[in-house]
Amino acid sequence: MNLTIDESLYEQARSHSFVSKKSISQIVREGLSLYLAKETNDSVKAQLVLEAKDEQEILEILAEDDYITEDEFVKKFNL
């Protein structure tokens, strides 16, 4: 995977890499993992896309904007 970032962000990553004794790749992996672990409407839709059985189901998921998280569902229906 190639990644393009601006020079300022690269310098910050390089400095952090030096101080933390981690590679920039490791910092990017950790940051991406944290970002993707956040439960948002987009993350719920992304998980549904991964679980979709066919292209039509994916298109239906992407067309909808009214998904709620599991926690919100439990609260809404007092489960």
Q: Could you describe the 3D structure shown?
A:
Helices cover 70% and strands 0% of the residues. With 79 residues, it is mainly alpha-helical. It has one domain. The chain is built from five helices and no strands.
Number of strands: 0
Query: What does the largest sheet look like?
Result: none
Given helix and strand content, the structural type is mainly alpha
What does the overall shape look like?
elongated
Distance between the termini: 42 Å
SSE order: HHHHH
The overall average pLDDT, rounded, is 87
Number of domains: 1
Alpha plus pi helix count: 5
Strand proportion, as a percent range, falls in under 5%
Radius of gyration over alpha carbons?
18 Å
Oligomerization state: single chain
Q: Runs with pLDDT <50, length 5+?
A: none
Helix content, binned percent: 55-70%
Features:
79 residues; mainly alpha; 70% helix; elongated
Structure at a glance:
The chain is an all-alpha fold and 79 residues long.
